[in-house]
From TrEMBL:
One Pfam family from the record: TP_methylase
Source organism of this protein record: Phaeodactylum tricornutum (Diatom)
Name of the protein: Tetrapyrrole methylase domain-containing protein
Top-level division of the source organism's lineage: Eukaryota
Domain Tetrapyrrole methylase: residue ranges: 1-96
GO molecular function, one term: uroporphyrin-III C-methyltransferase activity
GO biological process, one term: siroheme biosynthetic process
Amino acid sequence: GVSSAFSAPLLGGIPVTHRGVAQQVVMCTGYGREGSSLDLIQYHKEQTVVFLMAVGRLRSLCDKLIELAGYPRDTPVAIVEKAGCPEQRTVVGNMMTIADIAEEHKIKPPSVIVVGEVVNA
């Protein structure tokens, strides 16, 4: 089958790669082994990072990506909730706003988080 890391963004209208925007995609889990912290992917403008199982850690994930991995505060972020289901929803923001947007819309698992310029492609 096709991983939700690819299918969820596609169903939400977001390509994971796009000519001139993102030339690579990295898939990550939202949780380290036994709840440990993640090995963060350093920022690269032409890269998409897709997080699985991370919506419960969204605020701390965004904070860490900004503080420890060099992501600009205005990096686009989207969340695709319940991809492929009739209840599917997509919300869009940036590193500074997406956690509040997710709370406002009561975004829950299963959700896929897409980080990078492809969100606006």
